[in-house]
Design brief:
Helix content: 25-40%
Structural class: alpha+beta
Mean pLDDT: 97
Distance between the termini: 46 Å
CATH class of the largest domain: Mainly Alpha
Number of helices: 6
Strand content: 5-15%
Largest sheet: 5 strands, mixed
Bound molecules: FE2/S2 (inorganic) cluster
Number of strands: 5
CATH superfamily of the largest domain: [2Fe-2S]-binding domain
Order of helices and strands: EEHEEEHHHHH
Low-confidence stretches: none
Strand order of the largest sheet: 2-1-5-3-4
CATH topology of the largest domain: DNA polymerase, domain 1
Number of domains: 2
Shape: globular
Radius of gyration: 15 Å
Length: 151
Amino acid sequence: MTLTLHVNGRDHVITSDPDTPLAYVLRDELKLKGTKLGCGLEQCGACAVLVDGQAVLSCVSSAASFAGRDINTIEAVGETDIGRRVQAAFVAQSAAQCGYCTAGLVIAATSLLGRHPLPDDTAITEALTPHICRCGSHPRVLRAVKQAAET
Ligand code: FES
Ligand code: FES
């Protein structure tokens, strides 16, 4: 059976094994390399994508399990007002160091602000907790999310 995924606003017929984790299909078949692979074990947050507006880890769940869902990767985040504000705030606050975790964090922040336009520190911390940053950028990320909420 053919697998079709709706990614970044359009349908893609997928030729990879449907059991392949979504992140590999995004990166290797669709060439959307902005979604990063870190642990591959749902432990670091690097692979987060938006699925029906929610931040979802993509490194373990099969591509087939995302059929019929609205998937948006970091490549499309800037097409929404919230995503644009989050990206601009990350730049303004220098919230990326090596940048490996950044796509996942931007996805998480965009998802959060879609649900809570003015989140408090607790809500921001909860949303970002699944995301590990080995460079220690968390204070700047926190400031960026607040700036994005207030602009
Ligand atoms: S690569 Fe998916 S959570 Fe680490
Ligand atoms: S900026 Fe390097 S891992 Fe977060």
